[in-house]
Structures are given as structure tokens and as C-alpha cells.
Amino acid sequence: MIPLSKSLAAVLACVIGLSTASAAMAADTYPSRPVTMIVPFGAGGGTDVIARTVSDELSRALGQSIVVEARPGANGAIGSAVVARAVPDGYTLLFTAQSTYSLNPNLMKDPLFDQLKDLVPVASIGRSPWLIAVPMESEFKSLADVVAYGKANPGKLVFPFWQSSVLVTGETFGRMADIRMRKVPYKGQVEANTDFLGGRLPLMVTDIAGGRAPVEAGKMRLLASTTAKRSAAFPDVPTMREQGLDVVTDSMLAVFAPAGTPQPILDRLNQEVSRIVLGSEKVRDRLRQLGLEPTVMTQNEADAFVRSEMTRWEEMIRRAGLQKE
Amino acid sequence: MTSLLANLELGLSIALTFNNILLCLLGCLIGTLIGVLPGIGPIATISILLPFTFGIPPVGSMIMLAGIYYGAQYGGSTTAILVRMPGEASSIVTIIDGNAMARNGRAGAALALAALGSFVAGCVATIVIGAFAEPLGRIALYLGPEDYFALIVLGLVFAIVLAGGSLLKAILAVLFGIVLATVGTDMETGAQRLTFGLPSLLEGLSVSILAMGIFGIGEILHNVENAEGRPVVQAAIGRLWPSRDELRRSAGPVMRGTFLGSLLGILPGSGTLLAPFASYVVEKKISRDPSRFGHGAPEGVAGPEAANNAAAQTCFIPLLSLGLPPNAVMALMLGAMTIQGIVPGPQVFTKHPDLFWGMVASMWVGNAMLLVINLPLIGLWVSLLKVPYRLLFPAILLFCCIGLYSVNRLPEDVYFMAGFGLVGLALAKLGFEAAPLLLGFVLGDSLEANFRRVLILGDGDWTKFVSSPVAVVLLLAALAMFCATLFPRVRKGREEVLVEQ
Question: In Å, how far are A29, B183, B197 from A26, measured between CA atoms?
Fold first, then answer.
């Protein structure tokens, strides 16, 4: 018996030793085969386009090809779940928007995975602010005008929304300013823009990509941004905070890996991605065109960010009165 | 007028450069191919190809992507006519008379009429874009939710009028389609509706799953079950080209289809899909002998085909003149333009006249190419009919599965298609038609969205539905058409005329 248990122990020790050694080796030789980057939204959309640009540069930096795969469905939950369940070896990564890691877990009754336990952030890419806009010919010249009108005419103001983060932004603004607004559902920003430009909506929440055309055409006036600092694309537009309202609801694009991915691989990826986001002219251009501001974090910062955003959004979603479904 | 000519000259000088001709040809070829292949449509193709166009100059990439889109409208009718399978959702109507023509041995003629009708429509729609883009674009802004609601109600009445057989069954089919459209996440509350807890249903069913399941798979099951009445008639393929009589009959429908398509294409939402239905109903209503419809009337092919092609081109108007894409493909084009650093909107005309006019002119070039690509192919397509059905149907099944799976890579999509194949078979056995169901599905989404929008924007005021003259006219037209269908004598006539064999 003794020899058996001894040999078992030896085998065990060997296995453990090997696996740690192989993990260390894996990190040394990473990546030795193509990496899959999953985008949980439709191909050709904004997130997909940025993912492809970043992956292009990243594959050059890593000396390995990166296959970008669009896996849309369930507002990004399906593609995220694929990565959450993948082998944590650094060969399957997720390129996603804040709605999947801060909103979905708080809005889905039955999320397909545990965001904080099954996925670990690798790096951040950039943030996209929400902006409060009114038609050019509107009598509202400032956010204070909107608030004053809303206070005098409760329930008269109406804003469009097409995704949870827009709804939460509008509702949080209403709550902070203590005004009651009605909300109209739309399929997407384009439909909402049509009714906004047709003069049927007094105000709307827009992102930079959707607002740039009407602003340039002189049809839309921006009153506030929901970022902590002013947006570089519209430096003249004051933030909500500057105007005394604590509304910060911008959206951060980030890269995730399955939990359990070796730390050296996470660190390596974080370094390369951050260098690309700050250094690559092409990536910066593309981010700017789509209305995002390049933002980098260390892996630890990203992890802390994802955790704190989870509770912050949970609070905002609850206050906005959204039910889990 | 002179400025229009000068602009078109500028456009042609850009569209006719060697590179752009090549890109246009490439787009048209890809478009024809994906149009013929069921399942994979322009949305999937353009989104897959989008990243590869970033390296091409903006004009060239837009020329190619546009070519894919209107090229798909040419190709989509091919499978509809030959094997009753809509290659694209917009060719559903073509099935009715196109396939009937094929069964009568006129497959070649039907394909030629579809191509010629599309060509004429494409050429006219190009002029419409060039001459009226700016004023027409504004129409989309002036119409409010109540107008769209009324338009959709009219579209649903079209669906009922269009169907043959029992009136009650037609209404039920439309309603079933609307119910299927509600599957997914409620846009206001986020509640899950009819998803049965399946994550893949959270964003609803896609029209290609439904169209391929109910039309494609259902039809195959039906045919495999009874050897009689297979859509593929191996005997008597007949003359390949349309007769003088068929051409004469088609001229009017093509012009009216082009007009309807150009107008409906501008409207956001379902305009492109509504156009062929509208054209078919109009042709049948004004025909001196409506009894031929459903039995291979060339008008029922030429009109809708012209309409869907015209709409596929005029739907660029709101994108280019306002920066508001009216459908998912145009939204992708908007993405492509943004990436290229072009902000779509009224300023495109002044800031990027080369892009706008180059693209408009390329549509002429592209339509001519498509005619040249498609006419010689007719002989080849028709010879496909000689393939024994036992070999043909597994191939169609395979293409359907691959095409659908390649779009989202969700195995559930393929299961749902198979499931709807059974639904299609059951419906066919019970005497329900698929076309009204599909139109109900396609319009159901906007019906609900606009209904809610009218009430929310109007703060619960029901009179808002009749607050605009456009809405009133459209609703009255729908009511009149519905009553005419209900009126017994007409209904009796309708049942005689429209029963499909």
C-alpha cells in the first residue's frame, strides 16, 4: 500500500508540477496558435469594427493571427457566455461594450453566466459618452431651461430610448433634476433621430456617432454630456456634473478573458492592448470616428472598475424602476 | 436640369474609372450570388465584407456595397421562380406568379421578365435619386408615427386581399404573423414575450428563418410527401424568352411598380418589403382579368420585381440626404461611411459630390451589368429544372442550413428553421397561405412600435391616430379595400380567382 500511495503522491506531485510548469511555459510561449476574439454583437456594427482594428494591430504585436468572430444574440449575452465557458488559456477573448458587463447582469433574471466569477477584464479600450440634445430651434438653450420647463410641466417632456443604458441615462437625469418625463421606445437611434429631427421629440439622449451628423448639419444642439470630464469631440458641451447633476452613464469598451487565465498572459495582453490604444494612429482615428475616447487601465484597475460599475449600475437600474427579466 | 446633367457627368466620370467599374462588377456578382443562395442575404454579406472595404477609397467601397444590395434583388427572384424558395424576403411575392409561370413551362420568360423589370426600375430609380433626393428625403421626416401606423394597416389589408382561398384563413394567417413578430424582448419594459426562456429568442425571430422555414422547408416537405404538383416541372421548359404578348403586358406593371417602389423605398422600416406586395395588389386590382393572377400572369412577376428593385435603390435617399438609414442594410452603409470619415446627411451633396454622384451613376452601370450577368444565366438556371427532384431537394436543404448558420453561427437558428418547416407543412395542409403570414410578421413589429409611439407621444389621446391628413387617407383606403373584400359578390369572385392549385 505504501509504495502505491507514495507513487500516487509522486504522480500527483508530477502532475501539479507539470501543470504549473506548463502554465508558466504557456505564458512564455503565448500565443503559439491563433487567438479568437469574440464580439457579442452583429458584424459590421461599431463594436465589431473597433474590435477588428484593435485585433489587427494586436496580432502584429503578438506575432499571431487573431480571428474576430461576431456572435450576436440576447443583447450580447450569448457571445459573452461563449467566452465565459471557454478554456482559460488566453486563446479565447471577448471584445465587448459596457451594456454586457454592467447592464445585462442586472437586467437578466437568468444571466447565462456569472459576470464577476466567470470573466476577468483584460484591458479597457475607450469610452463613449451619452449627450443630452435638443432640436436647434428649441427654446431650451441650456440644461437649466429643460429642468425649469420640466418642473413647471410635470410629465410634458418626453424622451426616446432604444436600449437600457439610454433609458437609465434619461431616468437618472430626471431623478437627479427632480422632473417627471415620459419615455418612448424605439428600435434604434436612427428611428429616434427621425422623429427628433421631424420635431416630434423635445429632447433626446444621443451618442457621439449618432449626434455628429445632425450637429454638423445644424439641426441639433447639445446641452450636456454624461462623462466625468468633458468629451474631446465636443469640448464646448459641459458635463452634467458641471451643471450640478450627478449623472455619469458613459459606456466603456473593454476586453475580457475567461476567469482563470494565467496572470502573465493577462498582463501581456493588457500591456499590448494599452500600447495600441494609446499609440496606434489607426485605432485612435477609428475610435474617434465612432465617438469613443481612448482610455487605458491596468488589469487591476480594469478589474476594480468592472466591480464598482456593477454596483453603480445596479443602483441606477433599480432607481430607474427597471425590472429583471 | 443642366446641373443634373453636369452632376451625372461628374458621377459617370467617377463610376467609369477602371477600378470603380471593377468594384461595381464585383459587388453585382456577389449580390447575384447571395441573392440566389437562400439564407445568406445582403445584411450578412455586407457586414462580413465591411472590414475589407476600409482599405478601398470611400466612393469605390460604397459602389461595391451598393452593388451587392441591389444585385441581391436581381438574384433573389431566381430561386423564387424556379423552386418556390424566396432567395430574399423581398422576392416572396414573385413566388406566386413566377413559380406558376415556371410550372406552365415559362420559367425562362419569368426570369427574363424579372431581370428586365428590375433593369428598367433600376434605371428610373437612379434618375429619381439624382433629381429628387433632397426633397424626397424630407418626406421621411414629415411623416409621424400615426402616418406609419396607417400605412402598415393598409399593408396588412394588402396581405389579406392578396391571399387566395378563405378570407377568414387569410386574416388568421396575418394575425399569426403579427403574433410571431412579438416574440422577443418588449422594447419598452424589457419583458420577455413568447421566448420560452430561450436566450436565442431574446432578440426575436428573423425574417429569413421564417421565410426559409415556412416557404423553403415547408414546401420541400409538402413536395416530398406528394409527388404530384411539384414546383419543378421537368417537362416542357418552353421558349426561354418572353413572348411579345408577355412583354406588352408587363410594360405597364413595370412602370407602376417602379413608381410604387421608388416611393415606398424612401420610407423607413418595411418600405422595401412592402413595395412588391403593393405592386402585386395594384396590378391585380386594375387588371381587366384578375383571374389570371396566381396562375402565371406575367404582370404579377414584372410589377413586383420592378418595385423591389426601385425600392432597393431609393432607400439610399434618406441615408444620403438625411443620414437616416431606413433599413438594416442602409444602417451598415452608414457605418461604412462613418468609418471612411464621411458624415452622412444633407452636407454629403455639397461636401462629397463625387461620392454621391459617383454612386448614383454607378447604379446605372451596375444595372446594365446585372442585366448582362443575368440574361445569359437564364438558360443555365432553367436547365437546373431538369435535375431530378430527389437530387435537388437535399441540395436546397443543405444550402438553406449552411446559409442560415453562417449568419449568426447559432445552431438554434437551424432548429427554428426546421421547426417552421413543419409549421409551413401544417399550414399548407390546412389551406393557409404563407405570403400573408410573412407580411404580417414583417409589418407586425412596426405596427406595434408605431401604435405605442402614437399613444405615448400623444399622452394616451386616441384621436392622434387620425390627426394627420396622410393617416386619414391611408386608413380610409384600407377600410375601403377591406370592405370591398368583405362584400359577398366580390368575395365570391375573389375565391374563384385566387385559389392556388
Answer: 5, 45, 39
Q: pTM for the full model?
A: 0.83
Q: CB pairs under 8 A, 24+ apart, for A298-302?
A: A298/A270, A298/A274, A299/A121, A299/A122, A299/A123, A299/A266, A299/A267, A299/A270, A302/A121, A302/A122, A302/A123, A302/A124, A302/A254, A302/A270
> Of chain A residues 56-115, which have a CB less than 8 A from chain B?
69-75, 77-78, 81, 107, 110, 112
Which of B200, B218, B210, B199 lies closest to B177, judged by CA? B210
End-to-end CA distance of chain A: 57
What are the structural domain ranges in chain B?
2-498
Nearest to B302 by CA among B77, B39, B470, B44: B77
Number of Cβ within a 10 Å radius of residue B119: 22
Q: Quick one: which H or E segment has residue A125?
A: strand A119-128
Check CB contact under 8 Å for A49 and B335. Answer: yes
Does residue A43 sit at the B interface (CB-CB below 8 Å)? yes
What local confidence, expressed as pLDDT, does residue A2 receive? 46
Unique residue bearing C-alpha cell 370591398: B484
Q: What is the DSSP string of B2-15?
A: HHHHHHHHHHHHHH
Q: Look-up: residue for cell 459590421?
A: A44
Q: A183 to chain B: nearest residue by CA?
A: B456
Instruction: Please say if the pLDDT value at position B501 is more than 50.
Output: no
For residue B407, the number of C-alpha atoms closer than 13 Å in the C-beta half-sphere is: 22
Nearest CA in chain A to B206: A73
ipTM over 0.90: no
Percent of chain B residues past pLDDT 70, beyond the cut? 94
Fold category of A19-24+33-128+251-319 in CATH: D-Maltodextrin-Binding Protein; domain 2 (3.40.190)
Give the residue from A220, A312, A257 showing the smallest Cα distance to A35. A257
Nearest by CB to residue A45, choosing from B145, B335, B457, is: B335
Question: Which CATH number does A130-243 carry?
Answer: 3.40.190.10
CA B341 to chain centre: 30
The span from the CA of A234 to the CA of B432, in Å, is 56
CB contacts under 8 A, A 265-324 vs B, are 286, 289-290, 322-323
CB B174 within 8 Å of CB B160 = yes
Q: State the greatest distance between any 2 C-alpha atoms of chain A, in Å, as a whole number.
A: 90
Q: Is the pLDDT of residue B15 over 60?
A: yes
The domain limits of chain A are 19-24+33-128+251-319, 130-243
Find, in chain B, the residue whose alpha carbon is nearest to that of A49.
B51
Q: Which amino acid, one-letter code, is at A223?
A: L
Whether B325 shows a pLDDT value over 90: the answer reads no
Give the minimum alpha-carbon distance from A94 to chain B in angstroms, rounded to a whole number.
16
